[in-house]
C-alpha cells in the first residue's frame, strides 16, 4: 500500500492498522511514566539522539535534553531527503522495502560514555525511518538503556519497536513516549486550499 492511499483512507485504516504496541507506548502515553527512571539515568550519562524532518520530534528531543541535562545529537544523512513531500514518501518507501541504511553525516563522538540513549524519530510508512537503522548499526548500544520517543501522524508507532529490538538486541529497551503530531501532508493540503481561495493583489 502506498503512503498516499494510507493517508487518504485514514478513517478506515485506523482500526485495520491498530497494531500491537508495547506496554505504555500507545498514542498519547505520557512522559511522567518514564521521567522518574529517566531522571536518574539522565544528566552526564544520558544522550538524546533524534531525527526530524518537519520539527515535531525536535520539540520533544529538546525538552528531554533540557529537563534531564543530557547531551543532544541530531541524526542527519549525507544525502538530503527530497523537499517535495510526494517524492519524500516514495524515497522513504523504497528505503523501507529495500532495507537500505543511508550513510550518516556524523556519528556520536564516544557513544561508549553514555549509559542511557533517548532515541527519537517520526514514523514513516508504519515503522522507524531508514536512518534510524543506520544509527543503530553504527553505534554499539550493548548494555545501554534505550528509551524511544516517537511521533506519528495518527496511525501509531507501527513496527518501530521491533526495528529497535532487532538492530540493538543487546540494549535494554524501556518504556518510551509517543505522540500524535501534525502531518506534513495535511498542512500542505490546507495551505494549498487557502492559497486557492485568496485573491492576490495585482
Ligand atoms: C515519508 C513519511 C511517511 C509517514 N508515514 C507515516 C505513517 O506511516 N504513519 C503515521 O502515523 N504518520 C506518518 N507520517 C507522519 C509523521 O510521522 C509525523 O508527521 C511526524 O510527527 C513527523 O515528525 P517530524 O516533524 O519530527 O519529522 C509520515 C511522514 C512522512 C514524511
Automatic annotation (TrEMBL):
Matches recorded under InterPro entries: Flavodoxin/NO_synth, Flavoprotein-like_sf, TAT_signal
Gene3D superfamilies linked: 3.40.50.360
Signal peptide location: 1-27
Domain Flavodoxin-like: 46-199
Residue runs in coiled coils: none
Keywords (A to Z) from UniProt: Flavoprotein, FMN, Signal
Statement: the UniProt record of this protein carries the keyword Metal-binding: no
Pfam family, one: Flavodoxin_4
Domain of life: Bacteria
Protein name according to UniProt: Flavodoxin
Source species: Mesorhizobium qingshengii
Taxonomic path: Bacteria, Pseudomonadati, Pseudomonadota, Alphaproteobacteria, Hyphomicrobiales
Amino acid at each position: 500500500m502506498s503512503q498516499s492511499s494510507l493517508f487518504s483512507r485514514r478513517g478506515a485504516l485506523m482500526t485495520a492498522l491498530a497494531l500491537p504496541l508495547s506496554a505504555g507506548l500507545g498514542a498519547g502515553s505520557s512522559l511522567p511514566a518514564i521521567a522518574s527512571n529517566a531522571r536518574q539515568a539522565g544528566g552526564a550519562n544520558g544522550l538524546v539522539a533524534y531525527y526530524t524532518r518537519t520539527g515535531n520530534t525536535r520539540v520533544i528531543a529538546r525538552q528531554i535534553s533540557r529537563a534531564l541535562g543530557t547531551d543532544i545529537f541530531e541524526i542527519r544523512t549525507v544525502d538530503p531527503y527530497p523537499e517535495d513531500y510526494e517524492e519524500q514518501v516514495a524515497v522513504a518507501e523504497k528505503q523501507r522495502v529495500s532495507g537500505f541504511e543511508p550513510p550518516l553525516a556524523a556519528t556520536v563522538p564516544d557513544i561508549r560514555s553514555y549509559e542511557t540513549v533517548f532515541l527519537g524519530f517520526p514514523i514513516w510508512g508504519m515503522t522507524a525511518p531508514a536512518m534510524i537503522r543506520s544509527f543503530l548499526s553504527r553505534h554499539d548500544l550493548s548494555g545501554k538503556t534505550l528509551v524511544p520517543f516517537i511521533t506519528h501522524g495518527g496511525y501509531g508507532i507501527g513496527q518501530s519497536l521491533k526495528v529497535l529490538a532487532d538492530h540493538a538486541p543487546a540494549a535494554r529497551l524501556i518504556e518510551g513516549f509517543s505522540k500524535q503530531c501534525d502531518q506534513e501532508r495535511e498542512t500542505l493540503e490546507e495551505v494549498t486550499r487557502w492559497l486557492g481561495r485568496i485573491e492576490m493583489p495585482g
